[in-house]
Amino acid sequence: MTTRRSYHRASEGERREDLLAATLDCIAEAGIEGATVRQIAARAGVTPGLIRHYFTTKDQMLQAAYRQLMNGITQTTTAAAQGHDPRTRLRQFIVANVTPPVTDSRTLSLWAAFISHIPLDSAFAAIHRESYLAFLGELEKLLSDFFADGKRTVSAGECRSYAIALNGLIDGLWLEGTLAPDMFEDNEIAGTAIVSVEALLRLPPGDLSLA
Amino acid sequence: MTTRRSYHRASEGERREDLLAATLDCIAEAGIEGATVRQIAARAGVTPGLIRHYFTTKDQMLQAAYRQLMNGITQTTTAAAQGHDPRTRLRQFIVANVTPPVTDSRTLSLWAAFISHIPLDSAFAAIHRESYLAFLGELEKLLSDFFADGKRTVSAGECRSYAIALNGLIDGLWLEGTLAPDMFEDNEIAGTAIVSVEALLRLPPGDLSLA
DNA sequence: CAGGTTATTATCCAAACGTATAACAACAGC
DNA sequence: GCTGTTGTTATACGTTTGGATAATAACCTG
Predict the structure, then answer these.
(1) Residue B45: partners with Cβ closer than 8 Å, 6 or more residues away
(2) What part of B 163-202 touches A (C-beta under 8 Å)?
(3) Cβ contacts of A131 on chain B, cutoff 8 Å
(4) Which residues of A88-127 are buried (b: 16+ CB within 10 A; e: fewer)?
(5) CA–CA separation, A174 vs A191, rounded Å?
(6) CB neighbours of B157 closer than 8 A, spacing ≥ 6?
(7) Are B149 and B83 in contact (CB under 8 A)?
(8) Cross-referenced SUPFAM superfamilies, in alphabetical order (chains A, B) (predicted)?
(9) Between residues A121 and A5, which one has the greater pLDDT?
(10) What is the mean pLDDT of residues A129-158?
């Protein structure tokens, strides 16, 4: 007679979320090659076999984890851009993207691990495209509101170009600021971001930061 | 009686380079989790055991491969900045960083795979720091030459800030332009880069691109 | 509180993993 | 040409991998 482990029967939503969170934890701690089915199951507190009850293959689970990661980031940064006037919203959005909790080495490790799979698997490419377009759209909205408020007319094409450039700048500063935070003084990255965006948009210096 | 495979006895330098090239090939094609000792050996045309004759551990080989990748990129971009006047050199350097062969999905996949290991292993962090400082130094040199030539005095601190911002912008545009090249028209990324750098440096529009 | 569903566990599998060691083939020096 | 050195192959070891299957415990329904 053998005794079996007792367990809790969770709802599908709960269980899937737990498994995805465990997947991200494992990738962040041991790299994508260390995120094995067994490690993930152990981290989630279940047995490895259960994973195949929720995901037909490991790759599919990785893709779901990638989607969850990007949704979380998008939520965090858009939530930060909730000021009242367009200028404050734009500034807060920019700063939020280059300061904690977004500048987090765990997030960066996860992000890079998935990015490296984009050229290898079109499913990952589709997820990236989706989240990139969401980010670009959010930025374009913030910019057009900002310009409308400042009585400056900017064509849709210009607005897109600005969004692409700002996105590039923000991505790059986030990357380097997170990879080697000790190389920069406090607020140096955030300050550089604001000054740079002012310059990129051809605004008078201080126009974004001062009241 | 068993017949053994015939083989060529290579010099240490050759063999190491072959093995590192094979390592990068494997990572680019199958991700870092697909770059197994056996796959790498097969790609390099040797048997797996040989790897341990050149590298004491697999991790050490990965680090050597990362260093080789970054050295190659640095060489390519600095070689592109070999015009005569400082303005041309700066422009060529920027454009080189956001156009082929630097905007290459294979390179990006490799870069991201290693980036994701930086927070997990200090050896990778050290290699990143080294190559980042080299890039930043190159950029600062180009900038100070450019400003000196244009009779504009810029303090060392300003120059550093400019270099950080430009590096961020270039990184970000390289990233997005390489990840989803079909999302942008031809030369859109390069054009955005030039216009954005002009704005970042508070130059008159067209100052970098026109004769 | 009995009966039916199914989420979960337990167990197994063949293949591939990183590493270690001994035998051999290639080349250098003499 | 023979001999010594060593780069390279061959082979083996124990572990871990992703995946499949059958048994079972937990909950839902009546």
Answers:
(1) B18
(2) 164-165, 167-173, 175-176, 179-180, 183-184, 188-189, 192, 195-196, 199-202
(3) none
(4) ebbbbbbbbbbbeebbebebbbbbbbbbbbbbbeeebbeb
(5) 12
(6) none
(7) no
(8) Homeodomain-like, Tetracyclin repressor-like, C-terminal domain
(9) A121
(10) 93
> Which residue type sits at A199?
A
A15, two tokens:
């269980």
Give the burial class of B180: count Cβ atoms within 10 A of its Cβ; 0-12 exposed, 13-18 middle, 19 or more buried: middle
Sequence-separated contacts (24+) of A34-40 with Cβ below 8 Å: A35/A62
Please report the pLDDT score of residue B162 as a whole number.
Answer: 95
Q: What's the pLDDT score for residue B2?
A: 64
Tokens 């507190």 -> residue: A45
Angle between helices B156-179 and B86-97 (to 10 degrees): 40
Q: How far is B17 from chain A (nearest CA, A)?
A: 23
Give, in Å, how far the C1' of C5 lies from the CA of B178: 50
| pLDDT tens-digit series, residues A68-99 | 999 999 999 999 998 789 999 999 999 999 99
Instruction: Report yes or no: A48 and A23 within 8 Å, Cβ to Cβ.
Output: no
Q: Which chain A residues are closer than 8 Å to B128 by Cβ?
A: 179-180
